[in-house]
TrEMBL record:
TM regions (residue ranges): 48-71, 83-103, 123-149, 170-191
Protein name per its UniProtKB record: Phosphatidylglycerophosphatase
UniProt-listed Pfam families: PgpA (PF04608)
UniProt-listed CDD domains: PgpA (cd06971)
Region (Disordered) residue spans: 1-32
Domain YutG/PgpA, chain residue ranges per copy: 49-187
UniProt-listed InterPro entries: PgpA, PgpA-like_sf, YutG/PgpA
An MF annotation (GO) of this entry: phosphatidylglycerophosphatase activity
Record keywords: Membrane, Transmembrane, Transmembrane helix
GO biological process: lipid metabolic process
Amino acid sequence: MQTEPSLGPADDLSDGPLHGGPPDSPEPRPVRPRRATARFMLTHPLHLISLGFGSGLSPIMPGTVGTLFGWASFAVLNRYLTVLDWGVLIIVGFFAGISITAFTAKKLAIDDPSAIVWDEIVAFWLVLLMVTPITFTGQVWSFILFRFFDMVKPPPIRYFDRRLKGGFGIMFDDLVAAFFTLLVIALWRMAV
């Protein structure tokens, strides 16, 4: 069994968010949440993915920075990937993301850490794939709409965010934000 190296006294975690202390301890003590750092990210490859290859470590608006990373990576990868390739990447990224983000969230001892941005990346890839071809201005508006729905979480996004837990909950609310972004864009295109 492989274990992560200790990252210091404040970061010493046991089995997960519900247990702490020695195994023979009569009562488990609550585990303090761990802060996502570059050192933590580099302890496991799944953390690297969950934290958006470092974009989720931004001290200011990590979800927005993660979405920007998703946008930039889409621009780079779109030169090499077909629509079918993108579809496979997004579907695999979503379903693998359920386990990947759950693993990192458990290690951080937080239900849905803001530093986990893989959900934003995959969801924004979906938005960009569905609206392409589009002008740069259109991409900016897509970004603004997606961030609005992801941050404000109007109903029913808020409902899913509160009710669904674990990796599926982390991934799903951003998928719903992507859906509403695409719905607004489709309605705008019909009105113009």
